[in-house]
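Lecture notes, unit on binding sites. The following record was shown on slide 14. It pairs a sequence with zinc ion.
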Amino acid sequence: MENNKVVLVLVDGLRPDAVQQCKHPFLREFMEKQCTYSYNGLTIMPSLTLPCHMSLFHSVGADRHGILNNTYIRPSHAIDGLFDVLHAHKKKNFFYRTWHELRDLCRPGALSRDIFINYYTYDNAADVELCECACRDIAAEQPDFVFYYSGNSDEKAHKYGWMGEEYMAAVELASRNIEKIYHALPEGYSMVITADHGGHARTHGTDMPEDMTIPIAFYGPQWEKGKELEQIRLLDIAPTIVDMMGCEAPADWDGVSLLKK
Ligand SMILES: [Zn+2]
């Protein structure tokens, strides 16, 4: 049985071409040389932050989780999410975030740690501090599953435009932070890197390829290095992670594990 520990890193609004053009080369080189990866991952509609996170964690489309914008509404039929499933398997979940709205990604009690540093108060420093905090905790306490969320790139893109100078600087910071997390990983950790959605001009939410296409990468002993996958879905990430960790996905999840048996 597989029993890997997993760190999932999500960079909000990260487009695949931003990974390819980023001046800090770590993320691109890591994906292309160390991971099984795709620059052609498909997110869900509406391509908005909270609906995409709900789909990522619950492996269903917005028609099934019912979250259509960034305001959370309690669903009438709740589906177990990634944090809930891992918690039921006695896994220790740590969550790091700069955006408060992500508080509803799991049921109460599923998190062993929940660190929130507000982007709107601290700007770039929120990401720097959050990353240091995550690196420290991972090295010292070795949680089973970590979700590290970085919102800086999306905020800069809304203000200054996707693929502009400020957005690309935020992507550089994300690449630098992912490098730090990678170097902080003790033996036995795998990593999954993705985005919730892309963006165009100063917005997202449409079904345009610029909004819908995301990078997805899997790193660890179960993954072939440097293998590019053609098209994979955001919905497949949660089933893949539970599979990597030797747990079972709920029957009502729509995604499938990408792990080759
Ligand atoms: Zn956004």
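Take-home: The mean pLDDT is 95.
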